Amino acid sequence: xxxxxxxxxxxSYTLPSISNASIxxxxxxxxxxVGRALxxxxxxxxxxxxxxEAHDAHLEKERQKLEELQNSSGNGDDDLGVGDEPESAELxxxxxxxxxxHDYYAVLGLSHLRYKATAEQIKIxxxxxxxxxxxxxxxTSTAPQSTSSLLSGVNLNTNDDAFFKCISKxxxxxxxxxxxxxxxxxDHELMDSQEDDPTPTTFSKSKKGLTDQEFFKxxxxxxxxxxxxxxxxxxxxxxxxxxxxxxxxxxxxxWYNFDSWRSFEWLDKEINEGSxxxxxxxxxxxxxxxxxxxxxxxDIARLRQLVDLTLSLDPRIKxxxxxxxxxxxxxxxxxxxxxxxAVTPQKSKAxxxxxxxxxxxxEKAAKADAKKAKAAAANAAKKARRAARAAEEGGAAS
Length: 398
Known about the structure:
DnaJ_domain, Zuotin/DnaJC2, Helix Hairpins, DnaJ domain-containing protein
C-alpha cells in the first residue's frame, strides 16, 4: 500500500489571523425567461394545452404533410401551385424575335399572380416549363427524320425551341429587378385595365349618378391597382362610407402628392443592331428619353384626373361639409350666448349702426353744452371785472 509523505510543520509556524470581513447577505436577482426551452414550453402550453400527446400528433401531421409535398414534386420542391396554367396555341406560337410584345407571366404560367408573384414562384414555374418544353426532352411525332443511320431518332426540326427561347427570356426579365420593374410598369393587363377606367364624361350630369355602393365598387379596385407604383408604403386606400374625416383627408392628401416609381423604358425604340453610326444612336436615345418624359407626364395627369373625379363623386365629402357647417354654427351660437347661459336675440347690423349714430350725436351735444357753459363762465368773469373797475373809478372820483 502506497504511503503519502507529508512535511512536518516548523516550530516557528503560527496560525493565520482571522479577518474581520463578513459574508454579504443574499440578494434577489430577476431571471429572464429566454431560450429554446421557453419557446417549446409556450408552444406546448398555448397550442397543445400542455399535452405531449397533442404535440406529438401535430409533429407527425406536419411530417406527413411535408412528405406529401415532396412526393408531389419530381425535384422534391413545393411547386406552390404555379406553372400549370393551360397553354393556348397562340401562346405556343410566339415569335422569340418579338420578345417585347410577349406576356411573360402567361409564358411562365403566372397569369393569376402577375406582379404579386414571388421570386420562389418564378423559379419553380420556370423549372416546370423547362422540364416540359426543353428541346432535348420534347418528343414530337412529326419531327423530320434523317436518312443517315448515325442520326436516326434525332429531331432535326429547328423551330421546336422557339417557345423554349420565350421561356428563357421571360425568366431573364422577371428575375432581374430593374427589368421586371420596367416590364410591370407597362404590363399588358395593366394597360388594358387603365383603358377601362372611368372619365368625367362617364358620369356626366345627364346620366344617372352613382350610389354609395357603386362608388366604392368602382374606385376601390382602381386605387388598389395604382398603389403598387408608390414609393411610400403603406398606401392609404379609399375606405368605405363610414370612414372618418381624418381618413378621407389623409387619402386625398396622399394621392394628390403621389410619388410614383413607374417608368416607361420598356417602350423605348430599339437601336438597330449592327449600326455603327453614332449619330443614329444618339438620335434614338434622345427620342426615347423625350418619349419617356412625355409618357410619365401623361401618366401623372391621368392619375390626377382620376383623383379629381373620385373627389367630385365621393359621397363622404358632402357629409363632412355638413358636419363642418354645423360645427361652425354651434361655435358661433356659443360665442354669442352670455355667461349665464340665457340666449339673447342677436342685433341686426342696422340696429347697431343706429345705436352708434345716436351715441355720436349724444357726444356732440355734450361737447356743445360744455362749450356754452365755458363761454357763459367767461362772460360772467368779464362782467365781474368791469364792475370792479367801475367801482374803483367811482371811489377815486369822490
